[in-house]
Automatic annotation (TrEMBL):
The lineage of its organism: Bacteria, Bacillati, Bacillota, Clostridia, Eubacteriales. Residues 5-56 form the SpoVT-AbrB domain. It comes from Clostridium neonatale. PANTHER family: PTHR36432, TRANSITION STATE REGULATOR ABH-RELATED. This is Phage transcriptional regulator, AbrB-like domain. Keywords: DNA-binding. One of its GO terms (molecular function) is DNA binding.
Amino acid sequence: MISAGILRNLDPVGRIVIPKNMREALKLKDQTSTEPGSIVEISLVGEEIILKKYNPGCACCYKEDEKLTEVLGIKVCNKCLREFEAASKKLNKMNI
């Protein structure tokens, strides 16, 4: 882990600001009046708070795979996609 040496105070409701150069490096989108901002995953590991750009995995097996395919708005990995295709072929043969 790289320490940038940046210190931030919590505001009255417990928020901090992630520096702009870090948001840009991770391609995190800021919230606008019409679009939501990027989702950030927050984890507690021992006495450390870990912030990570949220990267959802496969909707079926939950594996994080860079090669996700979106089908009807649902992201699935190649393995699950092949399983769905095989099941679909079986159903077609059965005329279901």
